[in-house]
Hints:
alpha+beta
Amino acid sequence: MRVVFLADWGVADTALLAHLRRWRGHLRIRLQASCGVARLGHRPGKVEDFSLAPGRALFLPHVAITADHCGPVSLALARHPRNGECWDVVSDEPPSVQTCVEYGWRLDSEENFLDDTSNGCQRQSALVRETEAGARLGLVLAVPTLYRVA
């Protein structure tokens, strides 16, 4: 089974990257624009230094990131064609359009989490105090999710 760890910029740290490498899972983590980037033969800079026009993408294999020069990793830098949103994604595999597609899967799970917590089920306000009742509630929420995904 191929496992891909998806995360937003709040968890892009070198200790996590090292752990994921030992775990042998794959990763797609969005970086902050201020994250450092070092490429062989180029001056060190930041993600924000790569100014791309909307609808454009740049793929950088074999780079190091952060002030600790963690790497080698790959970067997929892309700008949404209509709203210009930046997707600067670090990966442990060669970068491509697929890197951004896989990072986009994170948004699906985020929507599902939002539905389970505050939009639909209101799980936090359910006031479930017993472990068995919480497990049953989790199962009730998981079945439609599994059905939708399958």
